């Protein structure tokens, strides 16, 4: 699972998300390399992280001499503590990075690959003894906003303003796909680097569609018609990762954005008093999803399954569609039949939608952080700078079947799997019609409340009117936090 599985050049929170409020894909499509990934959007797993004491670096011998080639002063012979979320992308890419880092700088890395991010790292943060660099993703992610509020994250401006390894005449931030660092904003500061370029939407088997004579549904009515046909043949229409309702919110929130346009999306991020209750667009979106539930088009048992359990049954042709981000293909490599032909598609349209069918949710995922009390800050900053080099971006694409946020950052020889190739084609078709929610990064507690409401909805324990009420209550509660005023989409 990606982290969520959750976009700026040198703008602050007040100027982020201008233009399409998403990511222009023109630069990205120039490269024929791999797209994918998770990051999922991070699934909200709120876990209070107390700000710990300790971390006295006065005797920490990790600072070397700075130079033009060594802007942060990496010290040969020092050690780097690296923790990687071992989910949809595995951690082989990070091992390749660490080997490259050791070869160049003589720095030995301590590598930890795990899905238990909170369990392993929260005690270390609390004790003031965090790792040096962390891929903070997955279901057990420590929410970025919690770490930021506790003063436990380094402002990454120094890294972004340092010289690019590939073109020292440019700052690192100027080599990135426009808009992709917005997701790391907290209070106007970039404190997380969302590294992987991600798209979110629906997925299906090209083989199954060909066998059944189905065509990609562009309207919600056409989507329901396929679900109905599938049900008549003993196949579920829609699967979702029931124990992680982040995923079904991809569908609901995509429908809101595509039906109401960017203003409907921004209303949620900006904590509008009519973001849900009083919004005809939100009402139409949640009622559309609930129709799938009412008509029995869900894959049987999907509400009680984890992400991998539900996805595996989908790989076994027990459902036609599933919602996910572009880390899905890599996450399901071992479970996917060779002839499955995994394919991505945008969310179908409700009547009178403001955005075209081709519009997709796209942006950056998989947040990497440098703790403010990291012992080897010089090494961590240089490691992150090297992540944004073409060499390391290509290493990632080869190992994880995914694109990074680096413009033209992957060698053209990298081969794509079918699902990943389909996301590249979808991104090309979308052009500037992309969008990206930020409440998932800004407001983890609110995000959890929205997911909990959707969990109840999919289980038919509440109906759309109550879902809207609960979601609006979560928005209103978040709006009372004075810190929320620091985050704003224009």
Describe this structure in words.
- The protein has helices spanning 26-29, 92-105, 117-126, 144-149, 157-160, 206-212, 220-232, 246-260, 262-269, 280-294, 307-315, 328-331, 377-387, 390-400, 418-430, 439-442, 444-458, 464-479; strands at residues 79-85, 108-114, 133-135, 185-186, 189-190, 193-205, 236-239, 319-325, 342-345, 360-369, 434-435.
- Strands 1, 2, 3, 6, 7, 8, 9, 10 and 11 form a nine-stranded mixed beta sheet that branches. It has a two-stranded antiparallel sheet with strand order 4-5.
- Strand 1 (79-85), helix 2 (92-105) and strand 2 (108-114) form a beta-alpha-beta unit.
- Helix 8 (246-260) crosses helix 9.
- The protein contains 18 helices and eleven strands.
Quick structural gist:
This protein is of the alpha/beta class and 490 residues long. Helices cover 37% and strands 12% of the residues.
Keywords, please?
490 residues; alpha/beta; 18 helices; globular
Helix residue percentage: 25-40%
The number of helical runs is: 18
| Uncertain residue segments | 1-59
Termini separation comes to 32 Å
Class by SSE composition: alpha/beta
Described by the principal axes of the CA atoms, the overall outline is: globular
- Give the ordered list of helices and strands: HEHEHEHHEEEHHEHHHHEHEEHHHEHHH
The residue-averaged pLDDT reads: 88
Number of strands: 11
**Beta-strand content:** 5-15%
What Rg do the Cα atoms give?
A: 22 Å
Give the biggest beta sheet: 9 strands, mixed
């Amino acid at each position: 699972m990606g982290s969520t599985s959750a976009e700026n050049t040198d703008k602050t929170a007040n100027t982020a998300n201008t233009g399409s409020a998403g990511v222009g894909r023109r630069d990205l499509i120039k490269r024929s390399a791999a797209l994918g990934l998770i990051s999922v959007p991070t699934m909200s797993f709120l876990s209070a992280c107390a700000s710990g004491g300790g971390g006295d670096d006065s005797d920490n011998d990790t600072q070397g001499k700075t130079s033009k080639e060594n802007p942060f002063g990496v010290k040969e012979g020092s050690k780097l503590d690296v923790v990687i979320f071992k989910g949809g992308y595995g951690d082989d890419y990070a091992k390749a990075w660490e080997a490259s880092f050791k070869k160049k700088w003589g720095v030995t890395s301590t590598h930890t690959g795990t899905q238990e991010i909170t369990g392993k790292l929260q005690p270390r943060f609390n004790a003031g003894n965090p790792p040096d660099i962390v891929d903070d993703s997955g279901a057990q992610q420590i929410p970025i906003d919690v770490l930021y509020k506790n003063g436990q994250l380094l402002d990454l401006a120094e890294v972004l303003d340092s010289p690019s390894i590939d073109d020292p005449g440019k700052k690192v931030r100027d080599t990135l796909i426009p808009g992709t660092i917005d997701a790391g904003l907290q209070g106007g500061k970039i404190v997380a680097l969302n590294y992987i370029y991600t798209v979110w939407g629906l997925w299906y088997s090209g083989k199954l569609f060909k066998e059944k004579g189905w065509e990609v549904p562009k309207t919600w009515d056409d989507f329901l018609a396929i679900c109905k046909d599938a049900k008549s043949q003993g196949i579920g229409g829609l699967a979702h990762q029931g124990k992680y309702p982040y995923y079904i919110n991809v569908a609901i929130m995509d429908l809101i954005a595509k039906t109401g346009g960017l203003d409907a999306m921004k209303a949620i991020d900006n904590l509008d008093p009519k973001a849900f209750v009083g919004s005809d667009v939100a009402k139409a979106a949640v009622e559309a999803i609930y129709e799938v539930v009412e008509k029995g088009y869900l894959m049987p048992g999907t509400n009680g399954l984890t992400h991998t359990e539900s996805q595996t049954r989908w790989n076994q042709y027990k459902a036609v569609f599933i919602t996910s981000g572009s880390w899905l293909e890599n996450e399901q490599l071992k479970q996917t039949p060779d002839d499955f032909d995994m394919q991505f598609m945008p969310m179908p349209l409700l009547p009178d939608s403001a955005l075209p069918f081709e519009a997709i949710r796209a942006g950056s995922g998989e947040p990497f952080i440098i703790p403010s009390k990291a012992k080897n800050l010089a090494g961590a900053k240089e490691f992150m700078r090297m992540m944004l080099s073409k060499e390391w971006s290509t290493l990632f694409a080869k190992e994880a079947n995914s694109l990074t946020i680096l413009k033209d950052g992957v060698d053209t020889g990298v081969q794509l799997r079918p699902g990943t190739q389909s996301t590249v084609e979808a991104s090309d078709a979308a052009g500037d019609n992309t969008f990206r929610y930020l409440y998932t990064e800004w407001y983890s507690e609110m995000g959890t409340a929205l997911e909990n409401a959707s969990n109840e909805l999919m289980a038919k324990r509440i109906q759309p009117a109550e879902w809207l009420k609960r979601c609006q209550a979560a928005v209103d509660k978040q709006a009372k936090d004075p810190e929320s005023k620091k985050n704003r989409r224009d």
